[in-house]
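Summarise what follows for lecture notes:
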Amino acid sequence: MNDPETSGIKQEDVEERIDLIEENKEIEGLIELAKKHHDVNIEETLTSASWPSGETICYICPQCGRSFSCEQSLNLHIQFHNEVKPYACDLCEKIFSNKGNLKEHMKRHTGERPYMCDQCGKSFAHKGNLNAHMKIHTGEKPYACNECGKRFKQKQIFNDHIKIHTGERPHKCAQCGRSFTQKGALNAHMKIHTGEKPHSCEQCGKSFTRRQNLTDHIKIHTGENLHTCDQCGKSFLKSCVLKEHLRTHSRERLFNCDQCSKKFFRADALKDHLRVHTQEKPYICSFCAKGFRQMGNLKMHQKRHSGVKDHMCTECGKTFFTDYELRVHQSAHTGEKPYKCSHCDKTFKRPEYLKIHERIHTGEKRYRCDSCGKRFTQLSSLLGHTRNACLKSHLMGSKFPVDQIVEHGASNAEVDGMIPAESNSATEKMCAFNAIQVVLD
């Protein structure tokens, strides 16, 4: 299952943006210090750190793993690690090299937001965040990716995007070894291990690991900026999700599989589906090496390794690894069936049931018997077919033909007698017994 594609500005991690601004201010202060004590052209050195595309990266910081194109840039960077930071935050113990940076940092704790957008009234703790926000109104996207042509409003988001192409993941979790392209993503991941959910909704008490998730959640209570479907009245937090939803009403499936003619509402759904044909499983679990076709499934799987069940049902108190499992469980309390077939309007509690049902309409038969080549729409049908074939092979020469079993039924003793004596293994006996049960049912 995949989440719908979301816009870059909505996906950004607010916490990380604040960290980056603080880090930039920290670097500015240290540059001034370096100018006083070191005979080095700072502007030239920093410019050389931004290497052109394709140039070999040779110098790596042993403390944080950051890479540089020249030794001089690395040496300057190492000074930042070794610099004394005498100003400590009393609330979170983060340290800074000058008092001004500490003052900027304290806005995170006090909630102070002195920078206000004159177009929509939204306020920010840092001027850099306001400047980034203003590009939403102007539509300006000055940063273009040379690899794929995608454009971005903010340089930092652009830099994060580049790492997708280069494969760079400099931020590594010390507990499980998983690495990330962004520091904010690592910080959010660490809360899986700690179970920390510091951001709580004042109206319903629900807690979140990330501030942005809380901000999105609050819109459910306030109705602010919700995007509502004019056909069914369902509301969504993001316009891109509404756009995907509208296709379920129009039944518009623009993306076709050229191997089985199955159609999809979204391009990413088609991309995931094609891996069924190629058997590609590019997302590998770092704990057990199990492979998955979709990143979302890998994330759900890895939460089981963490052992943290941080999604609790408010009705019965039962806890779950993922929000998806919780929602599926809650439908048992509410009777809700949110997954609707676009062909016949039948509804289901779980998306898996909907997918299986839709094969009736599409004619897709993905499960094939290796013995006879017959194909089935459902795995259960293939298993039933296999058990029947297994039963027939075991009943060769038996005094109880299959048609007599169906017609007359059989007692437990007769069923025991039908399992051949030469079936010594528990697996063979269970296979024969299950096959008989299928026939009798």
Observations:
- DSSP finds 18 helices and 24 strands in the chain.
- The first strand starts at residue 59 and ends at 60.
